[in-house]
Write a structure and sequence with these properties.
The structure is a homotetramer. Chain A has helices at about 10-20, 35-45, 55-60, 70-85, 100-110, 125-135, 160-165, 165-185, 200-205, 275-280, 280-295, 305-325, 330-335; strands at about 5-10, 25-35, 50, 65-70, 90, 115-120, 145-150, 185-195, 210-215, 220-230, 235-245, 245-250, 260, 265-270, 325-330. Chain A is of the alpha/beta class and about 350 residues long. Chain A has 2 domains: about 5-115, Rossmann fold; about 120-280 and about 300-340, Dihydrodipicolinate Reductase, domain 2 (2-Layer Sandwich). A 7-stranded mixed sheet of chain A has the order 12-11-7-10-9-8-15. In chain A, helix 1 (about 10-20) packs across helix 11. Chain A is globular, with a radius of gyration of 20 Å. The interface between B and D is large, with 38 and 37 residues.
């Protein structure tokens, strides 16, 4: 069945989702809203959709699902409104910068029985999915250590940094989710260190641009994450899982894979320049999976709980840097109840 | 301007082009024809196009361009009819299995001033295009030697072999075109050897399944081609250009680039399983380029002449195997006149 | 000038050094001692050297330099005796498991003006040296993050674990030295986590077999280290340095670099099986450098201070795991005086 | 048993063998001869050997084996003299530039029952040996196509070209031997094309600097060889064997395997600069194998017949270029008798 979409937010990531929706044979983009009227009409026009107000979209009878790409501080309210209106919801991460607000929001979603998927797009990258499949088939035995290197090609403007909740909630949050997903066990403690090496303005905005994180599970599995807001060679996205019987890794991706050899050596081109080109296929598969969930009325993953836990890991990392100690995730989340057991997949 | 397409032939390669056309924002698939009514209606239905007869499509006023994906022995006639009807023409290779028939066909195209592009899809592969760009920018100096390895994952049925004109006209023809394109100079002599190593039925059908070819230009540049109808590891497509200042190569492509390490070593997955997945992007870019040519009324490449010369190289290879000698291309083509100078690009 | 060597200790690492010494045109192996008479005579016989007692070697007038490969708890005493006897000293790491004992030993070395090199062999690996040269030439700009993955193919016997001082003092100590060397700035804090995933007997012996470490310098540079006592795919030794202008890495090494392709994919053989084959060339170059230092009477690096600091980093890691906090290196070393500034290369 | 060597010829390749002999625990270099007295005494002095005349070495009772590294036109006479003197013989390729002279020489060797090994060093490269082992274990099924790319970093002086017998007898001869070795079946026909692209002086000397060769066996197996006297990126030495069940290849080798990433891309260093560094290990293993043959009195390979056939392939290639046709190897060799069956291993 064709799923009829309303898109809330026509900015950078909104455009990415508009493309994925309109390229999917089982989806139709009905309407777009944005606080900036021009942005909404431009995007709507490109894909033959209507411009409507956000409330109108949420209340519309000809729309089955909303995709929330608005500023972070509106996410939780919009999720609640859409859940109450009976819409299926795809929301960009994070749900909110505040753990308690997220918990409250998820209670509404739960109460309404709404379908909610959170936008951890990397789980849908075909290379990362293939890594996960190798792990799940037991080919590398019991997972022991996950290693993630994740570097952005350039630093965001300090203004963005202020609104984003900082590097851990904005950038590392993707790596936290991937680490949990690959470890297959909940993370118990977070240790982090962070500094400003790229742009002093980021430090002045109260954030960091370079970070290292160690994660540990109750059974002693490890993950390490290495983040930088700088990578002259492109968007650096590597994962590796080491287990009792072997290891599996995903290589970096580049737009063209050629090699030039001369007296200076053998040179391959730089990597993709950022997430829009690196994860094109992941975004398309993510929407496709969401559509499957909507049509089959099955639970969507990454779920709201996945979003909550990744945010809690970010919060724990912030505390760890400030206090110079390993922080328990339960210090941040409090007791999670029955749904707190690991549900990644 | 949107180009309105008629698709002649709804078989394997017709489906590939239908997908490329309908995925292009500047194209519209108006009608599909096929000798098998079911094939036509199924493909037309999938993309919201009409089913029409071949002649009706060629004569239609609401169609700007035809894509010819019918059996090879119909190509030349259809090209001539479409040229006379004022249609822009995209034709799958080869134009015909007979060099003289191709020459006659191209005279009609010339006389009508028709736009004709021949389907050497590999020129539009982004990796191969990047190789060509490195060569054209002079980064490797003067081209000296082109090395092509091109192996199909499996042998075609003997029945196909009989209709196809044999390995040189069906399979190597792509490599001949790439060799010319990368050498940047016309090929003067062809030496080939061929044998049956994969499937005796191919030998019984009068063809070969394993072939090696050497090409030389007047100035002494070389190309070597290695072909097999068998490759257990997937669709093997490698090119390398060696020049006075360096070399450039395009690696093989695989659907996912992960690596599993264990006591048996480090293993990456097999390559793409065949051309439909390996050259998906090339087919899309090919149609896009064709649309640009139609809209700008500029000469299309690969041109009819490119198709003619690649066929002549195949014919020369056949003779070389039979006679155990280096065959001059001019023995096959006869004098080509002014247009016989190199026009690749 | 030929340097005349006495070798103290004819065990596994003693044999490695005997081979490096006798393969060097500027060295001669005069005598070998070992608590096990058979081991000494076997090794001495193989290379045409004499068997002598340890004290006799240290006091001999026909010996210029000693190589200390005895059990760790004898290192400091032997270094002091050799220093007082005017011998140049090459000592396997660590100098002692106790930081205060090392400091006392180094005072004697200093007072005697003895040449002392500590066996951090990896600094002499040609691939790692090439990485360091790229960093030193400024090709990647200012160093920001060092990433080290270092995994042993198999776990040592629990008995060894007890004597070795544990994973951080025995195994990670090499990575601590490489991290300092590549960061080019002293490490200020150490955060570590460790667990037992490979062999419960290691846990029963009071040690860990899986460890992750984060290091930070005063200016905010990072290093991460990932260690395991298990790697089914061979001796895994990777380093990467990320800087403001780029990054440089050293790949893993394997005995033969071939690739087999079939329906299961593309497979390269496993890595070297352990340090004896992986670092053969490094051991030869290490002794060669030591000989140069002896002949030129220049200060040797890695120095005794390098050995002390690496040990202090290990001690800090142990505390960090136990106390769940970032540990300052100065908590372990106390004030180091003028020589405490960074002197690595 | 220690084999006592006499070395005839102290030039470039003589030095390579002197190093291999003196580095082997089962060999002793007793004496060196050279037409240039200085060259002989310098090399002898370096390794503690005596200088003697060539005849004196061949007749000496304290010498078991000779290594012939003199100019090519002396090889056959020296082999015959050494065979008659009861010496084991290692001779650099080629035995002679004339096929009939080689046949006559091998008759003497046969009659005397002498041990003769011909210096096709590449068979002893550990990477190529690993390729051969994969083939011999049947891992890739029946061999179908061998692909060799072999490029020298720079062209030899025209003077050398004149004496060497030309590119096919001097350079390609190694590739002919490797092709035979890997095909596992005698070559029946040779097709070659060659040109002058690198240095006109080579053309004036009557030779070529760029060559392509196709080989075919009676059962239809193929090999292709691509040669150039120019490669700005180092000594390019690649082999690949394609079979019915898969393929196996050996990668190029470089002195250090690091990678630098920056805005220009990912760069690995150039390859080894020539055969002395690329094949260091092969030369050592070659002499080791020769010593084994001498000690076990077993037949040595590569044998004199292997040397003869590789030379015949070169001669056939020369004719193929001149006559523009596929040349049968039997046209060059005439009937080879019982020993003409394939004996490669």
């Amino acid at each position: 069945m064709t799923v009829r979409f309303g898109l809330l937010g026509a900015g950078r990531i909104g455009k990415v989702h508009a493309k994925a929706i309109t390229g999917n044979p089982d989806a139709r983009l009905v309407a777009v809203s944005d606080a900036m009227a021009d942005a909404a009409s431009s995007l709507a026009g490109q894909y033959g959709a209507e411009v409507r107000g956000t409330e109108a979209i949420i209340g519309a009878s000809d729309i089955d699902a909303v995709v929330i790409c608005t500023p972070t501080d509106t996410h939780a309210d919009l999720i609640e409104a859409a859940a109450r209106a009976g819409k299926a919801i795809f929301c960009e991460k994070p749900i909110d910068l505040d753990v308690e607000r997220v918990k409250a929001c998820l209670k509404v979603v739960d109460a309404e029985g709404a379908t909610l998927m959170v936008g951890f797009n990397r789980r849908f990258d075909p290379h990362f999915e293939a890594v996960k499949a190798v792990v799940d088939r037991g080919e590398i035995g019991a997972v022991e250590m996950v290693t993630i290197v994740s570097r952005d090609p350039g630093a965001p403007p300090p203004d963005y940094v202020r609104r984003s909740g900082g590097i851990f909630r904005d950038m590392t949050i993707h790596d936290f989710d991937i680490a949990r997903w690959l470890l297959g066990e909940e993370i118990e403690t977070v240790s982090a260190q962070a500094s400003v090496l790229v742009d002093p303005a980021i430090g002045e905005a109260g954030d960091y641009d370079s970070a290292s994180v160690m994660l540990a599970t109750a059974s002693g599995k490890h993950a390490t994450i290495s983040n930088s807001r700088r990578a002259t060679y492109g968007y650096d996205q590597r994962i590796e899982v080491h287990g009792s019987k072997g290891a599996v890794s995903a290589e970096n991706q580049r737009p063209v894979s050629i090699e030039v050899a001369n007296a200076a050596g053998y040179t391959r081109p730089p990597l993709h320049d950022f997430f829009m080109t690196r994860y094109t296929e992941a975004y398309a598969r993510e929407i496709s999976r969401f559509i499957d969930c909507v049509n089959s009325k099955s639970a969507a993953t990454p779920s709201g709980l996945d979003g909550l836990i990744a945010l809690a890991l970010a919060e724990a990392a912030v505390r760890s840097v400030k206090e110079g100690r390993a922080v328990k995730v339960s210090e941040v989340t409090g007791p999670l109840g029955d749904r707190g057991v690991f549900q990644g997949r």
